[in-house]
């Protein structure tokens, strides 16, 4: 059973996605049949042969470890600091004419994590159009994103983290480092709240939040509180950045 709060978040995300699809329609983009929102099934997405396709995955495990010996970490959720300074999920472009989506994703994971994590159709969560950059629609914005979630053992996650920083071909290049998502909130308000206030690629923040709710890794109430904290952090950051501009000699 999904809770009313989770349905509320989902509706908000779907609403944004429907708006995106409407804009695609206005531009005469090819729409696959039966799509009520920009969400589409894996098979429908593959019918769009003129679209580019990218696959990304959220890898996670349970953990019994505790921060400072008292704050339960509960789950390890992996994301990465990308070459562009944004947070995102491991994965990348795949070519469905040459490989299945899952084969392509596994190939990308080998490059980025140094481990060929096998991902299957059963791990697929959703496919949708990528939001366009800077609000403009061009043929390059016809990118379909396929999102997967895979649960692993803690030991496997630790091996991935080691390989990602040592043998992975993309380490220090396309991937600046793997990061864990803090799901807790500290007394001073740090943790998930601060993490969510960073900058994410495309819809990665929504993909993360939807997954946390869907997998019951965070309650809707805790997520809501964390997001309120993120908004406060953003306001403080804006002020800090304004002050920092003075360091560059810029006059207020
Ligand atoms: P990558 O090779 O991992 O950078 O991903 C392939 C394409 O997908 C690039 O154009 C990225 O900007 C885009 N991308 C990656 N992750 C996301 C995401 N979570 N939401 C939207 N676009 C993404
Ligand atoms: Mn990538």
Automatic annotation (TrEMBL):
<dbReference type="GO" id="GO:0140933">
    <property type="term" value="F:5'-(N(7)-methylguanosine 5'-triphospho)-[mRNA] hydrolase activity"/>
</dbReference>
<dbReference type="GO" id="GO:1990174">
    <property type="term" value="F:phosphodiesterase decapping endonuclease activity"/>
</dbReference>
<dbReference type="GO" id="GO:0016077">
    <property type="term" value="P:sno(s)RNA catabolic process"/>
</dbReference>
<dbReference type="GO" id="GO:1990003">
    <property type="term" value="F:IDP phosphatase activity"/>
</dbReference>
<keyword id="KW-0539">Nucleus</keyword>
<keyword id="KW-0546">Nucleotide metabolism</keyword>
<protein>
    <recommendedName>
        <fullName>U8 snoRNA-decapping enzyme</fullName>
        <ecNumber>3.6.1.64</ecNumber>
    </recommendedName>
</protein>
<dbReference type="InterPro" id="IPR000086">
    <property type="entry name" value="NUDIX_hydrolase_dom"/>
</dbReference>
<dbReference type="GO" id="GO:0009117">
    <property type="term" value="P:nucleotide metabolic process"/>
</dbReference>
<comment type="similarity">
    <text>Belongs to the Nudix hydrolase family. NUDT16 subfamily.</text>
</comment>
<keyword id="KW-0694">RNA-binding</keyword>
<dbReference type="InterPro" id="IPR015797">
    <property type="entry name" value="NUDIX_hydrolase-like_dom_sf"/>
</dbReference>
<dbReference type="GO" id="GO:0030515">
    <property type="term" value="F:snoRNA binding"/>
</dbReference>
<dbReference type="GO" id="GO:0005654">
    <property type="term" value="C:nucleoplasm"/>
</dbReference>
<dbReference type="Pfam" id="PF22327">
    <property type="entry name" value="Nudt16-like"/>
</dbReference>
<feature type="domain" description="Nudix hydrolase">
    <location>
        <begin position="50"/>
        <end position="210"/>
    </location>
</feature>
<dbReference type="GO" id="GO:0005730">
    <property type="term" value="C:nucleolus"/>
</dbReference>
<dbReference type="GO" id="GO:0006402">
    <property type="term" value="P:mRNA catabolic process"/>
</dbReference>
<dbReference type="InterPro" id="IPR054754">
    <property type="entry name" value="NudT16"/>
</dbReference>
């Amino acid at each position: 059973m999904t809770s009313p709060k989770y349905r509320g978040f989902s509706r908000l995300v779907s609403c944004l996605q429907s708006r995106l699809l409407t804009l695609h329609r206005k531009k005469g983009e090819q729409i696959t049949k039966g799509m009520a929102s920009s969400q589409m099934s894996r098979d429908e997405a593959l019918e769009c042969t003129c679209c580019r396709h990218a696959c990304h995955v959220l890898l996670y495990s349970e953990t019994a470890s505790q921060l400072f010996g008292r704050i339960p970490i509960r789950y390890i959720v992996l994301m990465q600091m990308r070459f562009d300074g944004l947070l995102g999920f491991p994965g990348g472009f795949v070519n469905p004419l040459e490989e299945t989506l899952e084969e392509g994703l596994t190939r990308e994971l080998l490059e980025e994590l140094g481990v060929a994590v096998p991902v299957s159709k059963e791990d697929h969560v959703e496919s949708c159009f990528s939001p366009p950059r800077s609000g403009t629609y061009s043929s390059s914005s016809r990118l379909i994103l396929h999102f997967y979630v895979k649960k692993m053992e803690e030991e496997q996650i630790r091996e991935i983290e080691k390989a990602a920083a040592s043998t992975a071909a993309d380490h220090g290049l396309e991937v600046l480092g793997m990061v864990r998502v803090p799901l807790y909130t500290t007394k001073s308000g740090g943790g998930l709240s601060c993490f969510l206030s960073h900058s994410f690629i495309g819809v990665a923040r929504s993909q993360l939040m939807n997954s946390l709710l869907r997998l019951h890794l965070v309650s809707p109430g805790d997520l809501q509180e964390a997001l309120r904290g993120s908004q406060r952090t953003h306001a403080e950051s804006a002020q800090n950045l304004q002050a920092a501009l003075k360091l560059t000699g810029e006059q207020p």
